[in-house]
Amino acid sequence: MKDEKARGERLRAIRKKAGYSSAEKFAETHGFSAATVRSAENGNRPLTVRNAKLFATQLGVTWQWLYFGDDKHPEAEYAEAVEYLKTLHPRRRAAILQMLRTEAELAQEDQQHIPESR
After folding, report:
1. What is the pLDDT of residues 42-56, one digit of tens each?
2. pTM of the predicted protein model
């Protein structure tokens, strides 16, 4: 919940800095739901990566900054991957997850076979 409040505060601050006096004005100008923008600003509804990308584009900031508070957050790629996975058919998602498990196992095996340096 703390993260949602912080995201909402960043969204509200950058919206105002961009010259939009209210969530409604911003939403109306860019075709968003006013309720979605208000809820994200208030931290009542989670800001999705998808909406962070849409809002950030219109506000001239990166979605990573809006979502995480900085542009160098390693979890940004993970969040983006999760958003893509959610859009896939369950069978495709399962296949990709199995591929990732296999890759992780192979990487772990590779680490076990690296000789120690002297």
Report:
1. 999 899 999 999 999
2. 0.63
